[in-house]
Structure formats: C-alpha cells, structure tokens
Design a protein that fits this description.
With 375 residues, this protein is an alpha+beta fold. It is 41% helix and 23% strand. It is built from ten helices and 14 strands.
C-alpha cells in the first residue's frame, strides 16, 4: 500500500510515548469508540498541560510571596488552571475532527472519486481509510487519497493540495526481466527511455509516472474536470503494461487472509499463567468490522465476564477485516465464517510451544453476545 498523508493508526492501545511519537510523525489516531477517543486524548494531553500548570503555580507563588507576606491563593490557583481552560477544549475539537470527522470525509471523497471517474470499476474494496483497491479490465489497481506540498522553483512550499492516485504494480515478464531490470531489481535506462518515448507529448499521459515496481497516475483534486481525464490515464496504464511486456502484481487479500495474516503477526508465546484467549468481533465507528485479541488468567464457562479481564494483550491487538462482500452479510454469517477461520488456525497451532494458542482455551464472539468456544 502507498504511504499517505495523513496516515491513520489505531490508538486504543498506545502508551503516552507512542501517542506523542505518532503526533510528531503526523499520524492520526482511530479509536473503536468515542469513549476511547475522549479518555486517551484527555489523559495524555493532560500530562503536558499539568506540567505547564505546575510551573505557572510555582512562578506565581514565588512572585506573590516576594511581594507580600500572604499569597493571593485565588489568583495563583485560577491562573494555574489556565492551560486546561484555554487549551483542552481546543485540543478536544481538533482531535475529534482528526479521529472522527476527517476519516469519514476522506472515505467519502475516495468513494465519490471512484464512482464518478471510474464508473466501470469492479470489486471495490477498502483496505484503510485512505487506500482502496478495484478491478478494471481484469487488472487490479490501488486507489487512494493523500495531501502533498507544492514546491516552487526556490524550493519554498506554496501550499498543500489534495491528490488522488491510481497505482498499478508490475513486474516484467520472464523473457524481459533481464532486459528491463538490473540485478538489484531497479529499472534500467532502456526501460525508462521506452516509457518516455511513448508518453512524450501525449495529453492522455500527462498524469502518468513510473517507478521501480509501480506505474501510477496522480490527479490534483481541485483540477479534476471531465471523467475521461481519469479513464484515459487508466487506459494508457493498461496499454503500457502490455506494450512493455509486464504483468500486474497486485494481490488483493480477502478478509479471511487478513485474519490469517493478523494471527501470524501476533502468534508468539504468552505468559505461562494465561489459560484462555478471547477473540472479539465488533463494528467500529467507521462501519468497519474489527477483531481484537486478549488473554486471561482465569476462564469460566458459565460466566462470559472472564473475557472482560485483559491479563494479556498482544502488540497488535486489533485487525480491520473490512471488505465490501462482508459488509453486506448478516452478523450471524460473519461470526460463523470468522469462527471457522480462527478455529482452523488455532487447531493447527495448538501443540506448538512457540504459539500464542499453545494449550489454550480459545473463544470467539461479538462483543455483548454469546461466546463460542472453538478449542
């Protein structure tokens, strides 16, 4: 997937250090509920605001005691609270927009772009807030949204603009691999020259770009006009794929594969006192189906409340399994399908001492519903 700006990460399990590191790197945080957004934002932002309040309190108290025998405590305390009074509401508004409003706006922009400018798209799937895949003419493309700076001739930033991109990942056919690529997998000059010779002075190629593993088109959102501008670029990408004797690489994982990939990424030994694993399923604020995993020291088959105790949490607690096909299914069908995938995986790994599932009780279910024991 192309890295976009802004990029979104799930912030439910972030420590305060990870939270501020993400802010510095211009990450935007997604939360599974409004309560989690408010709790994390208030708790972590209160730390620097609290430090500022203590410094103001100490400075005012020192000044007050230097000027008079008795301090004006009302003044000292009220001024010390100014960082919270002035900044916390502003931070709530900004982070609410970034975590709740902006993701929905971005998703709407991409879906509107696809429906208007790529009307013949099939199998449209969302993989993240900013990245989608679709099929056109039997070829898979990645479609996304990003914000990029525009730099003038003096290398000064003129402004930031919204762009849509369409990416076609490729690889030369075996008979042409050594002709187009060097031993490090980088394109040779001959490949670039062939591309440039074809695209030169063609209006339909003005949005096209070439990289080592991808051909792509970029469109500034405010300059988009007629739909043919996008479809002409797509037609040229598909033609160039054939002309340069390449084939499409893009693999679009199914939601089942997403679950397996997630389980593999967290399949590491747990503390020895963890006896049961709960894999929860819920629909998030962005209307995406999510999975999460926790471990517990105690299991009670007669009381599902044991699954509310998080004695163990993997580093990647959550997995987004959004897919258009699963969105149209009933929740019972989704639960049954998820149970089947997890049951098969857990059974294979149950006797491996290096596995998360080694000799563990494993249950699956929708939050607030009945749990199904799969092992």
């Amino acid at each position: 997937m192309i890295q976009t700006n802004p990029s979104y990460v799930h912030g439910d399990d972030f420590t305060i250090g990870e939270y501020f590191k993400g802010m510095i790197r211009n990450k935007r945080f997604l939360y599974t509920s409004m309560w989690n957004w408010w709790k994390k934002t208030t708790l972590y932002i209160s730390a620097p605001l609290g430090i500022a309040s203590v410094l103001i309190f100490a400075a005012l108290l020192y000044q007050e005691l230097g000027l008079r025998e008795e301090a004006d405590w009302a003044l000292v305390v009220s001024c010390s609270l100014l960082p919270f009074i002035c900044f916390l509401p502003i931070i709530w508004i900004i982070t609410y927009y970034q975590s709740v409003v902006s993701p929905k706006q971005t998703t709407r922009k991409i879906e509107d772009f696809i429906s208007r400018y790529i009307p013949d798209a099939d199998n449209v799937n969302r993989h993240s807030i900013t990245n989608y895949t679709l099929t056109r003419g039997g070829i898979k493309f990645e479609v996304g949204y990003t914000i990029l700076p525009e730099i003038d001739s003096k290398e000064r930033i003129k402004g930031h603009y919204e762009y849509f991109f369409i990416v076609l990942y490729y690889k030369p056919q075996p008979d042409y691999e050594f002709q187009w690529m060097d031993e490090d997998g980088c394109m040779k000059d001959e490949f670039r020259e062939e591309w440039d010779a074809y695209c030169r002075d063609k209006e339909s190629c003005k949005h096209l770009f070439l990289a080592n593993d991808k051909m792509y088109a970029m469109f500034k959102r405010k300059e988009l006009s007629a739909p043919h501008e996008v479809t002409d670029s797509l037609n040229q990408l598909q033609y160039l794929l054939r002309k340069l004797h390449c084939f499409s690489l893009y693999a679009n994982p199914t939601w089942e594969e997403k679950i397996i990939n997630w389980l593999r990424s967290i399949d590491l030994p747990t503390p020895t006192d963890i006896t049961a694993i709960y894999i929860g399923l819920f629909e998030s604020e962005s209307s995406s189906y999510m999975l999460y995993l926790i471990g517990a020291r105690h299991y009670d088959e007669n009381d599902d409340d044991w699954a509310c105790v998080e004695d163990f949490v993997p580093k990647q607690k959550y997995a987004d399994i959004y897919e258009e096909s699963i969105e149209k299914a009933e929740w019972e069908e989704i639960q049954h399908a998820v149970i089947k995938v997890i049951s098969q995986y857990a059974e294979k790994r149950a006797e491996d001492a290096s596995s998360l599932f080694y000799h563990k009780i494993v249950t699956v279910g929708f939050d607030g519903g009945d749990l199904t024991r799969v092992r």
